[in-house]
């Protein structure tokens, strides 16, 4: 098998761009009194669901031998810590400074932050540690990292106990999430991350990796029928179903089927892909974490330009919003090259 799954890397970049387009779509009306391309990217948050399935796949795909041999537990923890926290702390600090400079509010924060409040500082500490004790963090996109941390800790336990026990953990965890979702229809159950329906996305990713590593390949027609049926389940109540527990689980299946086919293409065929798409895919974590910093500043800057030049033409506004999108992606790529990559190299030398 190819060590580097390049087509999957490109899809990771597309997922990051979808999230950026989603947040752009949510801000164009307040700033420019218009929508961006008729809000067709308003459901771009599905990029996060793709990341969750992808995370389950990649971790299982890369560390499957560790699961079998119960090996490299400490190395796994160090790698996961290095991958998530140091760069996140840098971006979170920059965003916190931006909030401070904007009197406690950015256009993507749901509440004003009062830096004189002890409770607010507890909120900040929880956010830095990514503790799953609250539904959101001062850097809004960090909520997804709390799910990643929960998954990494569970996978670490699986490595310690071995593949056989890991399978039991997989099925028990899945059953617990499904049971909680069913009981939530009858009684009020607290929505804790450990049993949230989005956990299914990680488990689906693990299952896809297991199928591929064990060479259990689906017939292309069976795969196509499964994908069509899954998509049809989302159609009747689209887009509202994407925010409901059963819709989120069906979406995880759709993303799993997409990732399965992409990986099969990746490991069975050899293509040359555009370097820019590979670079965006490689920079996806930087784009995902930093894009709110760029949007919070660029929206304000572009609004000043629009107001000063009295721009009301729809085509020009759409073009300006697209340029804003390109600047945000380019900024994320620069952050990757000059911040994330050096930070990863530094900590990998120090801790591994």
Automatic annotation (TrEMBL):
One of its GO terms (cellular component) is membrane. GO terms for biological process: polysaccharide biosynthetic process. The lineage of its organism: Bacteria, Pseudomonadati, Bacteroidota, Cytophagia, Cytophagales. The keyword Oxidoreductase does not apply. It comes from Dyadobacter koreensis. Keywords: Acyltransferase, Hydrolase, Membrane, Transferase, Transmembrane, Transmembrane helix. The chain crosses the membrane at residues 7-28, 40-64, 85-102, 137-161, 168-187, 193-213, 220-239, 245-263, 275-295, 315-339. The keyword Oxidoreductase does not apply. InterPro entries: Acyl_transf_3_dom, Acyltransferase_3. This is Peptidoglycan/LPS O-acetylase OafA/YrhL, contains acyltransferase and SGNH-hydrolase domains. Residues 9-336 form the Acyltransferase domain. GO terms for molecular function: acyltransferase activity, transferring groups other than amino-acyl groups; hydrolase activity. It holds the Pfam family Acyl_transf_3.
């Amino acid at each position: 098998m190819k060590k580097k799954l390049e087509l999957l890397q490109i899809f990771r970049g597309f997922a990051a761009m979808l999230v950026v387009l989603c947040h752009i779509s949510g801000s164009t009306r307040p700033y420019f009194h218009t929508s961006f391309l008729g809000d067709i990217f308003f459901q771009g948050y599905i990029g996060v669901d793709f990341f969750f399935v992808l995370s389950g796949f990649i971790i299982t795909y890369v560390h499957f031998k560790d699961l079998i041999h119960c090996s490299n537990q400490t190395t796994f923890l160090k790698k996961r810590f290095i991958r998530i926290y140091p760069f996140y702390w840098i971006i979170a600090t920059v965003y916190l400074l931006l909030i401070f400079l904007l009197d406690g509010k950015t256009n993507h924060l749901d509440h004003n932050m009062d830096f004189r409040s002890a409770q607010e500082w507890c909120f900040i500490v929880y956010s830095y540690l990514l503790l799953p004790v609250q539904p959101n963090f001062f850097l809004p996109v960090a909520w997804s990292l709390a799910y990643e941390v929960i998954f990494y800790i569970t996978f670490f336990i699986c490595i310690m106990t071995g593949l056989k026990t890991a399978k039991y953990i997989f099925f028990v965890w899945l059953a617990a999430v499904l049971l909680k979702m069913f009981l939530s229809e009858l009684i009020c159950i607290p929505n804790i991350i450990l049993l949230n329906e989005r956990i299914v996305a990680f488990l689906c990713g693990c299952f896809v990796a297991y199928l591929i590593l064990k060479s259990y390949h689906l017939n292309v027609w069976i795969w196509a029928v499964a994908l069509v049926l899954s998509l049809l389940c989302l159609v009747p109540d689209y887009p509202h179903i994407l925010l409901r527990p059963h819709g989120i689980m069906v979406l995880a299946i759709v993303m799993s089927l997409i990732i399965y086919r992409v990986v099969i293409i990746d490991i069975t065929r050899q293509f040359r892909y555009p370097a820019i798409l590979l670079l965006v895919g490689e920079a996806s974590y930087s784009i995902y974490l930093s894009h709110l910093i760029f949007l919070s500043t660029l929206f304000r800057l572009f609004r000043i330009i629009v107001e000063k030049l009295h721009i009301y033409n729809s085509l020009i506004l759409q073009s300006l919003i697209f340029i804003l999108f390109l600047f945000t992606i380019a900024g994320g790529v620069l952050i990757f090259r000059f911040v994330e990559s050096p930070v990863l190299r530094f900590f990998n030398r120090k801790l591994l």
